[in-house]
Fold:
Amino acid sequence: MDKLIEKIKKNGLSGEITIPPDKSISHRSLIFGFLTNSKIKIKNLSVCEDCISTLKILKQLGAKYEFISKNDLILDSSDVLKEGEFVFDCGNSGTTTRLLSGFFARSNYQATLKGDKSLSKRPMKRIIEPLRLMGADIESNENKLPLKIKGKKLNAITYNSPIASAQVKSCLLLAGLGIDDETVIYEPSLSRNHSEIMLEYLGADIKTGKNEKGYFTKIKKSPLISKDIEISGDISSAAFFMVGAAIVPDSLILIKNVGINPTRTGILDVFNQAGVDYKLLNKRKISNEEVCDISVKYTKNIKPFEIKGDMVPRLIDEIPILALLATQAQGKTIVCDAQDLRNKESDRIKTITEAFKKADVEIKENIDGFEIQGKKEINKELNLETFLDHRLAMTYFVLSLINKKETKIKGFDCVNTSFPEFLNLFNLLI
Ligand code: S3P
Structure:
């Protein structure tokens, strides 16, 4: 579906929404829930296409499930297949592919993992390499999908990951969870730690910390205990509303149930730099993850900001929408150390630069990011392409709210991969 947005915002965004469940935590609740080999309830599960890809794979492995409401699921993995040969479709989901590869590598299954056009272009060397060091049997198409994994007994390793990637870390944790000796993973900056939090919640033998070599996570073989899991709202989804409210004049919104795990709150650091008017209210914990409600108000004088270093993994998925915030700041914003953006659902450095140039935004592409000179109003008839990248689709939608002219978004349907409720929730605020 292409989306044509003709309406120009007149009165700002206003009202209250509850943000849908976190995608990363949802994948983990399904995978770790499956590994409890029991019947558990998962409360507030994301039903976006990516998470359904994970759920369907678990079903192929013999898990049974029942949705007792739109987002509440009973997952029963008490009697699943112990071996077999399977072909799995991971759809658009890098998280499904990379996390499950770690489990399959040390299982009794033979798994072939396939995906859509966008996923099939994405690099898998980052997981193949360390899994092979553990002794895994993996074939690939030049380090891309399809992956053919013949599960076998693996050896524990200490791995110094060259990149801060939660997908790589979680893949190796899922492998290490089945190995007697201790697997140790070092990463240069701390990537999202939802796997660590959930594994600890489910009783795994896991330790985390920091030393001179970097951030470490250590895991040993351990059974997971049967426990219900509740999932907090997704700050990466909330980001589109947060930035929308900050840049559309006269806006004031309240977003409820947003996860604020510190490994995900780089956007709040950016808001602090940019001087965006926001408040965190009603802080609490859900299944060991921090949560709150966030109010955001239109901010007239947005300041430029810098995104670099350790901050990058803490807002990696928010960079497209934060680039839009930068267009509304008075001065030059710099995003650097973010080369891995080129390996997401699209090459986001390139796709954002090209789209923003079409909108006459002053943007300069660099190898590891871009520079944006804000504040020129967007006043251009636009026809933007999403390249199967949901976060581009949603960024362009928010852009359309400040574009004085018509915006056409080609392939808008891909929002469903992460956020099927996106348009309905925006309509509540418009
Ligand atoms: C994710 C980790 C991030 C993120 C992705 C989801 C996860 O990827 O971009 O959308 O759930 O672990 P990397 O860890 O590869 O940076």
